[in-house]
Design brief:
The structure is a single chain. By secondary structure, the protein is mainly α. The protein has a domain of 125 residues: Tetracycline Repressor, domain 2. Helix content is 82%, strand content 0%. The chain has ten helices and no strands. α1 runs antiparallel to α2 and α4 runs parallel beside α8.
Length: 179
Amino acid sequence: MQKEQLIEQLRRVFHTYGYDGTSLSLISQATGLGKGSLYHHFPNGKQEMASAVLQAEGIWFQAGLNLLRQEGEPNMRLAQFIQFIALTEQDKLEASTLDIYTMGNARSLFGADMGLAVQEWIAALNKLMQDAGIAPAVAQHRAISTIAKLEGARMLCRCLDDWQIFEQLLQELPQDLLN
């Protein structure tokens, strides 16, 4: 099994069961690898596995932020970002990265990294809005509010089993952020 495939399988386990709820037995069952093979790939165990998943997610996340940061028309940059963050059916069954890495024991291990990621997200949204002529204080408030809405909407949609709420939120983002 290639490392990228293994990390994707690990991601699914962590996003389904959370960091604290993920055991080596669950990981072994999901990947089809014995505990010895898992330790061969990740000698430091579950924390190293979670770190590898988080690193891969960080690369994906930076690609999304780069869409917001690039040069060009703010509306087009935002449209590309919205398309980038659209959820697949599998994503809808899983907790968000912020959920996974800021709860329970994961918070002490990864919370600082998650805080930095959120700060980068705020900054990228803020810059996008300022490029569209939105005042800095208003842009800052809207950026924070947008992230809270997106993350909260994921949880709400899972509870209600109604993803139209999230889709509507994505459709309203251009109006909410750039006007």
